[in-house]
Automatic annotation (TrEMBL):
The lineage of its organism: Bacteria, Pseudomonadati, Pseudomonadota, Betaproteobacteria, Burkholderiales. It holds the Pfam family CMAS. Belongs to the CFA/CMAS family. InterPro entries: CFA/CMAS, CMAS, SAM-dependent_MTases_sf. It comes from the Bacteria. Keywords: Lipid metabolism, Methyltransferase, S-adenosyl-L-methionine, Transferase. This is Cyclopropane-fatty-acyl-phospholipid synthase.
Length: 425
């Protein structure tokens, strides 16, 4: 016989949102979750013998309402407020992805919240001014912030480990740069445009091989750091760093000076910040600035094509709290967008598991420098959100929900170059 325990001051009745949340967890079919409730009780959902295994502790039932309302965005808000925690964010995110069909609300939130956040995302349009605001919100957190946990190459994109998980991160980043150089058959004396040059990692690496690189960025912090690095290395004659929007590369003066003058174009994880409405402008810029027969290599994070439609018509934790204005393409989307600008795009390399390993190393470095980050003024709420960001992305790459790819792009024979000024700026 089961005794019914009446609500008391010590054990108040469970809120409706909590009951609904627990009902969703009972649908878990892959792996298992050990849940600790605010009163210290534990429940196991799923098969305790199955992996992945994850744990979640709810400190405040308000966390359940936040998750049901806004999915992963609500989870991030609850984590930031310390209404919940977990010993392994990556394991929890992997469990959620594996069980997405069963617990969709916990990932995507309710319909009203999806509409609201989709509208917020659309208002962060990547106009010239909007792009500056969006980039400032992420990259201009300060060079000291990124220098605290990135490797010495100051590279903030996926490394290439070539099946060697023990490879030092700086070596793996240089291996990625060399792969780009080899894929494009770059040689000393060639002239390369880099769209989105970050802190100058590729520009310096290529310049040391005698390749001329013109790098552009709209982050003031990145521009200052990259320029200083180039000057310190005495490579300013080979690596030029400009504070400039890629769309301004096709203004009248620049076209007169550089139209079709680049032997290659490189763009490493900048495409995610372009925004779908400006994809035609981006690809037309590649078309206009490449020499006849020349190629571009675009490294971009992609989202599984099967999930593109839900993704593009909503928002998520990453776009709300980390990368405002961001938009990942599906691989097929990327190819089709290039074709609309009379370009051929081919995926030549996919290395999502390497990104998961890159993120593991970034997270370990980040967590080892918490005292430094706090001294820079970043509080624990900010640190919790960034720790979630690392774990969230690591799980997505390990589970194949996202990938990172090298696309080689070139003009289709017989097609004239389109005018990028015909597209929205």
């Amino acid at each position: 016989m089961t005794l019914l325990r009446l609500p008391t001051a010590a054990h108040p009745p469970m809120p409706l949102a909590a009951r609904l949340f627990l009902a969703l967890l009972r649908r878990i079919r892959h792996g298992h979750l050990t849940l600790t409730t605010p009163d210290g009780a534990q429940q196991v959902f799923g098969d305790a013998r199955d992996v992945p295994a994850a744990a979640l502790r709810i400190h405040d039932w308000r966390a359940c309402r936040a998750i049901l309302r806004a999915g992963d965005i609500g989870f991030a808000e609850a984590l930031r407020a310390q209404w919940l925690d977990t010993p392994d964010l990556t394991a929890l995110m992997r469990l959620a992805i594996r069980n997405e069909d069963a617990v969709a609300t916990t990932l995507h939130g309710g319909p009203l919240a999806r509409v609201w956040y989709a509208l917020r995302h659309r208002l962060r349009r990547n106009t010239r001014a909007g792009s500056r605001r969006n980039i400032h919100a992420h990259y201009d957190l300060g060079n000291a912030f990124y220098a605290a946990w990135l490797d010495e190459t100051m590279t903030y994109s996926s490394a290439c480990f070539d099946d060697d998980a023990h490879r030092p991160l700086d070596e793996a980043q240089c291996a990625k740069y060399q792969r780009i150089i080899d894929t494009l058959a770059l040689a000393p004396g060639m002239r390369v445009l880099e769209i989105g040059c970050g802190w100058g990692g590729f520009a310096l690496y290529a310049a040391r091989q005698g390749i001329h690189v013109r790098g552009v960025t709209i982050s003031q912090e990145q521009h200052a750091w990259a320029s200083e690095r180039v000057n310190a290395a005495q490579l300013a004659h080979l690596a030029e760093i400009e504070l400039r929007d890629y769309r301004d590369l096709c203004d009248v003066h620049d076209l007169h000076e550089n139209d079709g003058q680049y032997d290659a174009i490189v763009s490493i994880e900048m495409f995610e910040a372009v925004g779908e409405a400006w994809w035609p402008t981006y690809f037309d810029t590649l078309s206009r600035l490449l020499k006849p027969g020349a190629r571009a290599l675009v490294q971009t994070i992609t989202i599984d094509d099967a999930h593109v439609e839900r993704y593009r018509t909503s928002s998520d934790f990453i776009r709300e709290m980390i990368f405002p204005g961001g938009m990942l393409p599906g691989p097929q989307q990327f190819v089709r967008a290039a074709q609309q600008a009379q370009l051929e795009a081919r995926a030549v390399f996919a290395f999502g598991r390497d990104y998961a390993q890159t993120l593991r190393l970034w997270r370990a470095s980040f967590e080892s420098r918490l005292d430094t980050l706090r001294a820079l003024g970043f509080d624990d709420a900010f640190i919790r959100i960034w720790t979630l960001y690392f774990g969230y992305c690591e799980a997505a790459f390990d589970e194949g929900r996202t990938d990172v790819m090298h696309f080689v792009v070139q003009r289709c024979d017989g097609h004239p170059r389109a005018d990028p000024r015909a597209h929205p700026h």
